[in-house]
């Protein structure tokens, strides 16, 4: 259906196919490098437990001549290995003959020390924030640029959502007979038709999972994550610090005393750390020789708490942390990737009695949903099948991206960007305006970037004829 223009000529609807295609093209041009990056780094990260178990394998099957040393002795040996450091957490070994892993902090830098329980000698010392999988995590979510990188990734995710939605519109069959090129690619075809089918069909099948991954990654981002945190804190039932990392901003520590007290927020922390991780980074067990204002605890408590963690069957990996200054109870917390299985206990150091317990079932509905989503995003909610689906999704996204680049490069005119030619003149209807506003409210960074794009298009580009020509925005001749 066409509306009549001022001169009686039929006027095309807008946004028409050409307009949707242009939005899809420009969104893809910006997003494809990030989509490929996220697909590759994300595929590595979902195997974090497997990779870390492989890296720690030399320290998990030790030949001990006698009895293993007490955990408190391992903690003291780790402190001695980094002179001037303070104890922050103890991670029990995964096997009975494994090395205890002790994290100590010197200044603002955390170190992980692997202690041989038979000789109490350090077997390995490394920066805790520079472990391979931590680097992969920061590459994936922050591009190793901190909050700036997090905002870039978030912006790419927002426009990737636009790219997928416009791509689904372009994929929708119009008067086509048969399912070839719609639900399955016609692989025997050659040239542009082959690449178009590969791009369109693969994009259709992967679109819903890709949308889920993009949306489920937003709670980690510095901008949208804080937006979510602000929103959830509007209600008392969800108020408090989330137990997932938000950009590089230090969040207040999670409730360590499950009887009701909340410790003061830690001052240290590394990019991308969870609140439990940041709470563990508090310097809480200083060795002799440090200033008197440095809080101290009795490391002998480890000898009681570590065996208790085994008896409670806390899912590994387990972090055992002492209380911050002004608090009494120690904490046993599971850090398993499948977040619904996590459990946290608080322990009376004097008696070894459990004083509090917090499980997934006790979380508020918002945190439950987000933690389930995160566990799925990281590939651990339903085991190997979850990982297989995500790896297949990553391969599909790489296929869609590569085929898009091939199609663009083949059709690109020499000396020009090769963007689709403009179609009908833009006219914003009520439903379109409402849809854009809704998307801008749900994705604020998208809204801001859209305003910038519109200013560039309407104010800056008209003054740059060479750029307009390169972008294919020259006005049509009468």
Automatic annotation (TrEMBL):
The keyword Secreted does not apply. Keywords: Membrane, Transmembrane, Transmembrane helix. The keyword Transmembrane applies. This is PepSY domain-containing protein. It holds the Pfam family PepSY_TM. It comes from the Bacteria. The chain crosses the membrane at residues 21-47, 151-172, 193-215, 388-409, 430-456. InterPro entries: PepSY-ass_TM.
């Amino acid at each position: 259906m066409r509306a009549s223009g001022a001169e009686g000529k039929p006027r095309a609807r807008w946004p028409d196919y050409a307009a949707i295609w242009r939005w899809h093209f420009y969104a893809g041009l910006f997003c494809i490098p990030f989509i490929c990056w996220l697909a590759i780094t994300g595929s590595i990260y979902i195997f974090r437990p497997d990779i870390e178990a492989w890296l720690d394998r030399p320290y998990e099957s030790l030949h001990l001549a006698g009895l293993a040393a007490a955990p408190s002795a391992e903690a003291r040996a780790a402190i001695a290995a980094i002179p001037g450091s303070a104890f922050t957490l103890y991670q029990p070994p995964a096997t009975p003959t494994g090395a205890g892993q002790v994290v100590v902090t010197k200044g603002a830098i955390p170190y992980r020390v692997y202690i041989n329980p038979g000789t109490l000698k350090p077997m390995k010392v490394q920066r805790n924030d520079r472990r391979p999988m931590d680097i992969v995590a920061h590459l994936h979510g922050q591009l190793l640029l901190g909050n700036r990188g997090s905002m870039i990734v978030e912006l790419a995710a927002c426009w990737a959502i636009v790219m997928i939605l416009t791509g689904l519109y372009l994929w929708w069959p119009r008067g086509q007979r048969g399912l070839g090129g719609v639900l399955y690619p016609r692989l025997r075809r050659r040239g542009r038709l082959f690449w178009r089918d590969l791009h369109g069909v693969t994009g259709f099948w992967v679109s819903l999972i890709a949308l889920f991954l993009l949306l489920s990654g937003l709670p980690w981002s510095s901008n949208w994550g804080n937006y979510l945190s602000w929103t959830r804190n509007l209600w008392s039932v969800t108020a408090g610090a989330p137990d997932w990392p938000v950009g590089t901003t230090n969040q207040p520590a999670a409730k360590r005393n499950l009887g009701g007290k909340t410790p003061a927020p830690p001052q240290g922390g590394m990019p991308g750390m969870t609140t439990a991780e940041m709470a563990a980074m508090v310097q809480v067990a200083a060795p002799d020789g440090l200033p008197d204002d440095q809080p101290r605890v009795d490391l002998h408590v480890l000898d009681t708490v570590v065996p208790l963690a085994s008896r409670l069957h806390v899912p590994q990996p387990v972090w055992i942390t002492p209380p911050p200054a002004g608090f009494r109870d120690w904490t046993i917390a599971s850090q398993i990737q499948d977040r619904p299985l996590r459990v946290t206990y608080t322990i009376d150091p004097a008696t070894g009695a459990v004083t509090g317990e917090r499980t997934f079932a006790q979380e508020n509905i918002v945190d439950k949903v987000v933690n389930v989503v995160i566990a799925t995003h990281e590939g651990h909610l339903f085991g190997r099948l979850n990982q297989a689906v995500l790896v297949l999704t990553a391969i599909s996204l790489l296929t869609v991206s590569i085929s898009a680049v091939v199609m663009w490069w083949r059709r690109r005119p020499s000396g020009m960007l090769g963007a689709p030619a403009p179609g009908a003149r833009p006219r914003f209807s009520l439903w379109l305006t409402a849809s854009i506003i809704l998307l801008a409210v749900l994705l604020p960074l998208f809204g801001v970037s859209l305003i910038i794009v519109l200013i560039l298009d309407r104010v800056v580009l008209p003054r740059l004829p060479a750029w307009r020509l390169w972008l294919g925005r020259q006005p049509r001749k009468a």
